[in-house]
Design a protein that fits this description.
Radius of gyration: 19 Å
Structural class: mainly alpha
Shape: elongated
Number of helices: 2
Largest sheet: none
Number of strands: 0
Mean pLDDT: 77
Order of helices and strands: HH
Helix content: 55-70%
Oligomer: single chain
Amino acid sequence: MTANSAAPAARVRNLVRTGGPKDDSSWVEHVLGWTLVVVIAMFVTQVGWL
């Protein structure tokens, strides 16, 4: 990638961000996310939707 094409690519990458967690998010966010997935899966199976 040349210097001329690297600058616009970086600008576009910053403009496309959706406001989600940063790329360097901590392991606590991952653990809490997977805990939420497990809790929802337990709820779905207990209710009988699966």
